[in-house]
Amino acid sequence: MRVFIAIALAVIAAIGIGVAVEAGTSSPSAHKSNAWTISTRQPSLRLLVDEPCPKSIAGYQDVTNAEVSSRTSLVPPSPDAGLICRYGTIPTMSTNVPYALVRSKRLERGDAVELAIAIDRVSTKRPTGVSACPAQFAAATVIAFRYAKESTADVWYQDSGCQKLDNGYLASSELGDPAFYNGFVALIDRLAPRN
Description:
Blueprint: H1 2-24, H2 28-33, E1 44-45, E2 62-63, E3 81-91, E4 96-107, H3 109-121, E5 140-146, E6 152-158, E7 164-166, E8 171-173, H4 178-191
Parallel strand pairs: 1-2
Antiparallel strand pairs: 3-4, 3-5, 5-6, 6-7, 7-8
Helix pairs in contact: 3-4
């Protein structure tokens, strides 16, 4: 019996070592294949930094980005400027107005670069497992970045329910990602608080 246990432990150890070696030698293409890619939800919005935030995004589902870089990262590094447009529900005397503009903030280069870095740090790995999310409201944030040579990048931030970021092609989730909720969320709430 002792010999059987010793052999079983040796086999388990060998399998464990094999898994550790394989995990340590993953290639960049293997990481890319693990990225969470989505189809752009329609209709989609294109936001430009030099224009004002739309008064409402009711009816829009996502952003769209034509640049090839949107397929490898949520946003490219080193933007020249940025724009944050935050949307929520505004109560009126007779009804509630969903997805109405509640805050807009233009970002100078320093803040835009800091926000792009925070977005780039979140994982674009597809979330797994079962999770329970809080209620989702008619609220979202759209972020635009401007770069040299007049290229742009937009990001849609679903900021209620199971929060996520996407650029119309790549997505990320707050679930199990401290870089999302401690880094990105803390920064955007400081740069453009809802209240």
